Amino acid sequence: MEKVVKWFVLTLAAVTLIACASGAKKDESAESAEQASSGEETGDTRYGVDDAGKIDAKTLLSDTTGPLSRRVFYFEFDRTDLSEEDRQALRAHAEFLAQNPDISVVIEGHADERGTREYNMALGERRAKAISQLLVLQGASKDQIQEISFGEERPVALGHDESAWKVNRRAELLYSGY
Question: What is the pTM of this model?
Fold first, then answer.
């Protein structure tokens, strides 16, 4: 949780600095020359901030080290509960969704190969719903979230042992358009 808070504080500070800097008047010819020399167009996308000072969602979602980088959540055998670490990571996703109502996410629930096909489909659905409910409780809109279960049909590991089953018992967050 501390990392998420620190990340948001740093991002807010960067946005504030950029907003303050963009408020300063510049000579139009100097600004055009600066843009031409740096290869920039209008807007400062280096920091994921658009002309209005809003953080660019695509930049946040493509950041491989940021609080939204974790999008796969693993479960114990026949379980749907989330660890505290999972809950902290999902808080960042809920905040992001709450701040970006035009963005939606699909939560895919998966299971390992043990159990019947029907049981695993239901288990994958319960896993997706567990994450969906947590996101909504933390501020995301239900309209932004879709749950789907693939059961055992889309394994990431094809083995028939605990190491394969462990990575197949998961739920994945897939943001639309990203």
Answer: 0.70
